[in-house]
Write a structure and sequence with these properties.
The complex is a heterodimer of chains A (113) and B (111).
Chain A (H helix, E strand, L loop, with lengths): L4 E3 L2 E5 L4 E6 L7 E6 L6 E6 L5 E4 L2 E5 L5 E6 L8 E8 L8 E3 L3 E6 L1
Parallel strand pairs in A: 2-11
Antiparallel strand pairs in A: 1-3, 3-8, 4-5, 4-9, 6-7, 7-8, 9-10, 9-11
Chain B lengths: L4 E3 L2 E4 L5 E6 L6 E8 L3 E9 L2 E4 L8 E7 L2 E6 L8 E8 L4 E3 L3 E5 L1
Parallel strand pairs in B: 2-11
Antiparallel strand pairs in B: 1-3, 3-8, 4-5, 4-9, 5-6, 7-8, 9-10, 9-11
Chain lengths: 113, 111
């Protein structure tokens, strides 16, 4: 069974700090996606990583896909209150048809001003 | 594009009542997904459709839950009868390939 485990579950930091959150699995994924969900809204796709070792940057956010394609990390530099939200990683569910994703339970980030 | 549209945004009902949640996917998307999100269990896939046909409903909790997609622009998720443990946020998402686009969700409270 494919599982995506995210850590930490909760993270509370001050504005300006750096942080890293993780998404790990014992299974190999052809790609992984990161979503951010703000309170009261649905998840919004941030990035898709598809190549082992790939690094993608989105302003202050840096996403990395592990060489073995079993894990990924999200690093935020100089966090801001606007970064507050639930960060979810997701990958294709190989037990299902194309288009079906499995999601981790997420990291809930709170950035205090 | 208006994005995925869900209605209602909030629903409060009493145990035993029927609840119908509605979703309009993004035009041109051929996949539609229904999810349920709770603090304890996270985001759970209930059912998904491809070209209006249900592909996998193994996540539907029990027979009280049913979903339909009569055409490419509309889907419903029905709970009958509802129970307090059904209280959660229900999301609809649509996709053309890979990335899923989520609606704002319906927050359901069953008393």
């Amino acid at each position: 069974t494919q599982l995506l485990e995210q850590s930490p579950q909760f993270l509370s930091i001050q504005e300006g700090e750096n942080l890293t959150v993780y998404c790990n699995s014992s299974s190999v994924f052809s790609s992984l996606q990161w979503y951010r969900q703000e309170p009261g809204e649905g998840p919004v796709l941030l990035v898709t990583v598809v190549t082992g070792g790939e690094v993608k940057k989105l302003k202050r956010l840096t996403f990395q896909f592990g060489d073995a394609r079993k894990d990924s990390s999200l690093h935020i530099t100089a966090a801001q209150p606007g970064d507050t939200g639930l960060y979810l990683c997701a990958g294709p569910n190989y037990g299902g048809s194309q288009g079906n994703l499995i999601f981790g339970k997420g990291t809930k980030l709170s950035v205090k001003p | 594009d208006a994005g995925v549209i869900q209605s209602p945004r909030h629903e409060v009902t009493e145990m035993g009542q029927e609840v119908t949640l509605r979703c309009k996917p993004i035009s041109g998307h051929d996949y539609l997904f229904w999810y349920r999100q709770t603090m304890m269990r996270g985001l759970e896939l209930l059912i998904y459709f491809n070209n209006n046909v249900p592909i996998d409903d193994s996540g539907m909790p029990e027979d009280r839950f049913s979903a339909k997609m009569p055409n490419a622009s509309f889907s419903t998720l029905k709970i009958q009868p509802s129970e307090p443990r059904d209280s959660a946020v229900y999301f609809c998402a649509s996709s053309r390939s890979g990335a899923q686009y989520f609606g704002p969700g319906t927050r359901l409270l069953v008393l």
